[in-house]
Amino acid sequence: MKPFPQDLILETIDLKSKPLADFDGKVLLIVNTASECGFTGQYQGLVQLYKAYHQQEFSVLGFPCDQFGHQEPNSNVQIQQFCQSTYQVDFPMFSKTEVNGSDTHPLFVWLKEAAPGVMGTQRIKWNFTKFLVSRDRTRVHRYASTTTPEQIANELELELQS
C-alpha cells in the first residue's frame, strides 16, 4: 500500500485550505456525499457517529460529489446550508470533489488503492461510499452506499481501541 498522502492540502466547503495532516492520529470515516440521493438520509447517522466518538480522536470527513446521477448539483454554499439546516452537520465538509475518472482527488486515489471494491475494482460505485481509515493509516475498510453509518459503529469502536 502506498503511504497515506498526509501532505495533501484539502479545500474546505467554505474554500479554506485545510492540511490533511491536521487529522493525524485520528480514526477517519471518509465519505463521498450528495444532497439529492436516496442515501442522503445517512447524513443523520454520520452526525450521530461524529457526536458519539469525536472526543475519542475520530472524525467524519464529507466530500460532496456530483458524479453519480447529478445528485449534487448545488454550489458549496448551498451544500453547506443544506447540511447544516437539514442535518446539523458539524463534522468537516470539503468542496465538491471528483472521486472517479481522470480528475480523481488524490485522497480518493489512495483510498481506492488501499481498499478496492468488489472483485478488485477501484471505481467508487455511488454516493455515500465510506472508507474507515485507522489511526496509523495502515488499515482501510470500504463500505458500500447501502451500509449505514450505524452498521459501521462496531468496527469504528474496534479501530478506536487499537
Automatic annotation (TrEMBL):
Presence of the UniProt keyword Lipoprotein in the record: no
Annotated keywords: Oxidoreductase, Peroxidase
GO annotation terms (biological process): cellular response to oxidative stress
Active site, renumbered: C37
Taxonomic superkingdom: Bacteria
Gene3D superfamilies assigned: Glutaredoxin
Oxidoreductase found in the keyword field: yes
Transmembrane segments: none
Pfam families: GSHPx (PF00255)
Gene Ontology molecular function: peroxidase activity
Family that this chain belongs to: Belongs to the glutathione peroxidase family.
Protein name: Glutathione peroxidase
Classification of source organism: Bacteria, Pseudomonadati, Pseudomonadota, Gammaproteobacteria, Celerinatantimonadaceae
